Amino acid sequence: ARPKVGYIYSNKPSYSLVYDYIRKISVEEIMSKPVVVQEDTSIYDAILHLFLNDVGTLFVENNDALVGAISRKDFLKIAMGGTDMHKVPVGIIMTRMPNIVFVDPKDTAYFAAKKIIDHEVDSLPVVEKFINEGKELFKIVGKVSKTNITKIFVKLGENG
Amino acid sequence: ARPKVGYIYSNKPSYSLVYDYIRKISVEEIMSKPVVVQEDTSIYDAILHLFLNDVGTLFVENNDALVGAISRKDFLKIAMGGTDMHKVPVGIIMTRMPNIVFVDPKDTAYFAAKKIIDHEVDSLPVVEKFINEGKELFKIVGKVSKTNITKIFVKLGENG
Q1: How confident is the model at residue A138 (pLDDT cuts 50, 70, 90)?
Q2: What are the angstrom distances between the C-alpha of B6 and each of A17, A18, B13, B16?
Q3: Is residue A145 part of a domain?
Q4: Cα(A61)–Cα(A36) distance, integer angstroms
Q5: In a domain, B149, yes or no
Q6: Are B65 and B132 in contact (CB under 8 A)?
Q7: Total structural domains within chain A
Q8: CA–CA separation, B160 vs B154, rounded Å?
Q9: With bands split at pLDDT 50, 70 and 90, how would you rate the model's confidence at B16?
């Protein structure tokens, strides 16, 4: 349902201003540093990276291209099972391209937030396209998470 | 840094409208259903609850009062160690009151988001105070997470 809004300075509801304001924020303004591991990293080492960097999602690359993603939830599932975490690489258990949802640095923060909610993920890789041997690949240049979105929300609510 | 804003209808920057608008959203408008387990629930059963309800944090109660919280991150740490998850109850490993950050249903969503960021948690219990035998206790009535905040952000950016 559309929120009720007052008419403040004109016939245009203030809600439109909020909308316009929010749609101007870009992914590159709010993205943070991604934590990236190689496809052959063991699950155990990957979990260490997760804890040392205190993130909820790792992105996986191979030859400088995004190939997968793996979350704290995926790792917990694996840790509950009998998998040998020292021997099995993340490449075996990660969500694999083309099933990774990603955004471009020039996309809006709104678009990224909508993708996070629609696809029920905590974090998206921010990528730049490149071509290698005629194939379209994606270099990981950042990440946008629910934390980044929550931080903008706090900033918007702060007394300027 | 304060974002640059234009002056649209008056000398007051549109940014103030965004600020005013955001400060009117309350916790009770955006909170969702909390997933609660009892203090004597085994770690293993608690993790099942986490997966079945697809949440990142469980709140723990005892005699209808909030006594603790435990996150996916805490569970992953435990699952990596040698703990017998069938025998040890969540009460042993949870973060315990008074170290739980919480909010009231009448608090603003901004206030909740700020607490989430400042205390580096994914989710806060929404509580109502009650008195039992002269002691001030808190009943869990909801939760506010980064997901709830991300959803409001998407709503604010939607074409009304």
Answers
A1: very high
A2: 11, 13, 6, 11
A3: yes
A4: 7
A5: yes
A6: yes
A7: 1
A8: 11
A9: confident
ipTM of this complex prediction, to 2 decimal places: 0.89
Give the domain extent around A39. Answer: 30-157
CATH number of the domain that residue B77 is part of: 3.10.580.10
Which structure tokens are listed for B129?
């105070």
**What angle do the packed helices B43-53 and A72-80 form, to 10 degrees?**
140
Q: For B110, which of A5, A9, A157 is closest by C-beta distance?
A: A157
pLDDT digits (tens, 9 = 90+) for B110-148: 999 999 999 999 999 999 999 999 999 999 999 999 999
Asked if B58 and B137 count as a contact pair (C-beta separation under 8 A), the reply is: no
DSSP label at residue B11? S
Cβ pair B43, B84 in contact under 8 A:
no
What is the DSSP secondary structure assignment for residue B105, as one 8-state letter?
A: T
Distances (CA, A) of B67 to A93, B25, B60: 35, 28, 6
Does residue B90 form part of some domain? yes
Interface residue B9 vs chain A (CB under 8 A):
yes
- Domain membership of residue A6 (yes or no) is no
**Cβ-Cβ contacts under 8 Å, A21 against chain B:** 5, 14-15, 18
